[in-house]
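$ fold --in a.seq
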Amino acid sequence: MKPTKNKSDFKHFYDVVVTFDKVDMLHIVNNAVYFNYFEQARIKYAKDLKLLPEKGISLDGTAFYMVRNEINYIKAALFEDKLRIYTRISFIKNSSFRFEHIVENIDKGIVIAEGAGILVHVDPILKKSIPLPKEFYDKVLDYESEVEILKSK
């Protein structure tokens, strides 16, 4: 399988080194670990763009729920591989948005996985989606050049 995303479309990245606790009995990175890498990259992205509330996650009366997570495995990662997780927001709707990721083996210069996830802005008490604030749109659009703004149906 060849990668479908082009890393030149991504401005943001987060580097990790595969530690011993992340590999399985086959000596490759366990498939579930990639979702942890994606989460770390999303948090770094949100912090760098100052998308998180000043009081902290969920302390401003809102939250973000992950409603979809997907990944395509292309090549295996091994113990002590240096990985770069590229991250971008590809679309924003009224109350949701999509992150996309590419995982590159830095030393080999090859893409080993790609994935995506959709998050929804939620009122944690009512358990209902709520619109994203204008500041969210402004910060993402200021940083990303290819974000699609989708109208809710």
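$ fold --in b.seq
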Amino acid sequence: MSSSFGQLFRISTFGESHCKGVGVIVDGVPAGLALTEADIQPQLSRRRPGQSSLTTPRDEADKVIIQSGTEFGLTLGTPISMFVANQDQRPADYGEMARIPRPSHADYTYMAKYGIKASSGGGRSSARETIGRVAGGAVAEKILRHNYGVEIVAWVSAVGSIETDTVDMATVTREQVDQSIVRCPDEATAVAMTERIEHVRDAADSTGGVVTCVCRHVPAGWGEPVFDKLEALLAHAMLSIPATKGIEIGSGFGGTRMLGSAHNDPFVMKNGKLGTVTNYSGGIQGGISNGENIYFRVAFKPPATIGSTQTTATFDGESAKLKAKGRHDPCVVPRAVPIVEAMAALVLADVAMRQEARAAFVR
């Protein structure tokens, strides 16, 4: 199903950007896990609109309600339903867009596929859909942290041509990431990124960026050979996020410029376990985790909806000019950080359960 993700740990998201609300059904959560809205809300609050001058001013609290699957603060082992109400919709802002598809948005492709589209907002292609992902990812993350000590931290590493490579993946924390509204833990670079986003916002334009993510303490052995390789699952997860256009795992495209003698990660004993001296592999070899930090970078395009007038065409092919109304992010990466973390958690929780099932069967 196009709105579901995962196998043993599985989510199904629902809702459109301007309907009554959005949410998620999470299946596969073990019984007896301590879980309340307080475990979910922090990540949703990091994702919500209106949190800073760099984001859309749409005013949504994004307060989550757990509707099923728990009792007295413990999971029952049954599907968990979570819901977030839409409270600050402005459908009137989208009147002209009913006949003019926004350039580089999903308006035309949804119409081509279904013969109909949501009359306001982006419908299922809107970033509102990611609320369900973040809520489900928060559950996955709690399982990973509680059972395996896995830590997942993402941050903004580039806005346009402004980038940083000084962040220490081994030690960076979410608290450090959140010290700046642009969510870059490099203070000087964060200032330059903020100024860049403010400039394009004031010019009624937009800019893209990159989110880097590290997953620490992932045990060796997670992931499946051939088609369900761990990097393939991560790529699927990340490229399903709205506005993504690419992913690099480990050395990524930069590794293509290296010699094999330099790129190979020699093995060495670390605290009684086999590890590697370098980590150009990004913690994954043969599609399976090797115990080193898993790290990757996700590219986000400039948001398609901008306030500048654009020459384009109507659905009927007639020439038209479009100056989009509504409230939109000039750059999505500050709010994309918890979404990237959530999708990484969903992948890792699923492959962890698959590995546990394999080990249980062998015993």
